[in-house]
Amino acid sequence: MLSPGFQTKGWGQNETFTTSGTFTVPAGVTEITVECWGAGGGGSTRTSNAGGSGIGGGGGGGAYSRSVVPVTPGSIYSVEVGTGGEASSPGGNSSFNSVTVVAAGGSGGVLNSTTAGAGGTSANSTGALIYAGGNGADGFEALSGGGGGGAGSTGQGKHAIGATGGAATTANGGKGGDGVSGSNNGLPGSNYGGGGSGAVRSNGINYGGTGANGLVIITYVPNTTITTSTITGSPFCAGASVSVPYTISGTFTSGNVFTAQLSNSAGSFATPVNIGALTSTTAGAISGTIPAGTLYGTGYRIRVVSSTPAIAGTDNGSDIAVYSFPLAPATTGSTICIGSSATLSASGAGVGDRYKWYSAATGGTLLKTSTSNTDNTYTTPTLASTTNYWVSIINAGGCEGPRTQVTATFPALSGDNQNAAGSNSWIGHVYDGTNQSVAFNGNFTSYYGSYTETETFDQGFGGSQNCFGFFSNSVARSIYTETYSVRYRMSSSRKGLFIADMGSDDGGRLAVDGALVYNNWSDQAFTSRPRVLMSMNGASSLVYDFYENGGLNRVVFQNLTQLIANNLAGNIEQTLCAGETGAAISGDVFGSLPVGISLSGTGYQWTYSTTPGGTRTNIAGATGANYVPNSAIAPFNTPGTYYIYRNATLSSANNVAPNPYIATNESNAATITVQANLPASVSIAASANPICAGTSVTFTATPTNGGTSP
Fold first, then answer.
1. Closest by alpha carbon to 434, among 446, 426, 442?
2. CA-to-CA distance for 602 and 476, rounded, in angstroms?
3. What is the dihedral of CA 113, 115, 118, 123, to 10 degrees?
4. Which of 90, 169, 247, 337 lies at 20 to 30 Å from 392 by C-alpha?
5. Which CATH architecture has domain 565-675?
6. Cα gap 156→154, rounded to integer Å
7. Domain 330-409 homologous superfamily, CATH
8. By C-alpha distance, which of 206, 166, 199, 186 is closest to 56?
9. pLDDT for 1 beyond 60
10. pLDDT digits (tens, 9 = 90+) for 336-348
11. Positive or negative, the Cα torsion across 430, 432, 437, 443?
12. Which CATH number fits the domain 225-323, given the four candidates 3.40.50.300, 2.60.40.3880, 3.40.190.10, 3.40.50.1000?
């Protein structure tokens, strides 16, 4: 298993210094291992034979020192490589940063002496691990002393033994030079740090062997790391693409694969999921995909790992939210409010979710994004035909589910009976458009249904710019209260002359039994028209038209008040003989008349007909509230049956148009039967004539115009 920042020494790098110089710390390196080998001392030089018959001692081997040194990337440090000692001279120290790590050079053999030089000492060295250099050997008899061996990384330098130079020590500890005989210069020490052997003189000058130079090796393990950078785009939807940027330090080998991994929802990489890979040895960005089946969570992390070397990088440093896609919403369509819009609804969104409304199944125009899961409706613009819309759910992570179609249905024209009337109540037939140009006895167009009103009503339709409800074939629908019309129909059992308070915004008009009695058919603010006069016959058909052409809307039919029933009740069945005067026929009479209403003439005119429902003829001079029939005066001086009526007539200045309006109401019929005057006589006849004396006879009397026989 990989751990973040895992490193292996096998990936160490080094810089070897055989001459002095500087070391610049590479990027990502914070720690180095410094190894120093001091230079070997030179062997004894002989310029005379004093003190040993011209035989010289060997130089000492250089010491070894090692330390792990913390450093700062980019810093520059001095590196000194000790120079091998010349004849009888000490070898130079090798060092890092002057004093941080020091390996002492070996001492030189003593000039004109058999005395050898000592190896570089621990006391003169600095480091966590120090090995002293090998000592040179003193010259003896006819042979010069060998040079001491240089210390290696595995141990101290070997001492010279007699003329045999100190053996090499692993690693990099050089062998000391072997002693010489005769009259010869000493032999040099071997790399690194081997001491030179002493010289042998017979005459002249013979030089000791030169010590070998020192060495500095700096080893560092590049801080091979992977840092997963900030991931942008959270929250993510399951199945979404994600770019995973990363940076590196250190070196990765050719063929290395960087892999982006997704944790579980708690941020654990115990069982990571690979989401993308990139073959590379450099920093970059991995194109990955959040698996489609990833469960919702807000604690996901992403990291990058490598294959060669196997390193697990840091994660992205902050939690990532992953959301699954919502399901398609359920929807409820709506019937368009005629002349306006429809309100559609959806369900299925949870807390944090929102609805998105579109004009098409894919693509299209985004019409609305709701503010919350409870904001689940969309109101369409004004529509004149059935229109489809689509709605989806988007969650807090921005993950949007599939769309569901929902339909705004434009109502069909109604097939209901437009002529249906209420009985002593109104049926209001609703039409789209004002129908303002249609005559009162014409046919309105664009019929959509109806609703009911009581006999008197004051209807405001819920105000302007409202959808007013009604029905067609028992199915609810509505119309926008701006440009529409209503034709109210009522069959009334009332009889007599009546007034009613009327008014409208905009136009209103009333027809009774096919005659226009009130006409206020124009655009207007609401104006009350009180005491509108009308006549009803007990089975009258009333048609009250209303239209609205924008703005406020209201229509009124209130305070229906009877002025006269015009009901004949006194002496309405009479039989008169020719020339006879009957009793006065009477009924209810006008009382005090309201403002704007006056009698037309005397207010009464009596008429007659000779058949029920026949042509009415005015009775001359019969203009009073009561009428006394006289069979001596035409037309009743002719025997027969007569049907007598009273017309009650009023004039109104309140009906707007026509003005004045004359309303006449015909009463029920009084029946007068006039019988002729006939001469009365009787004739008597015997049952037998002549008769025999003593017999009986029967006499029969037969009247003419005189009743029955006696």
1. 446
2. 52
3. -90
4. 337
5. Sandwich (2.60)
6. 7
7. Immunoglobulins (2.60.40.10)
8. 199
9. no
10. 999 999 999 999 9
11. negative
12. 2.60.40.3880
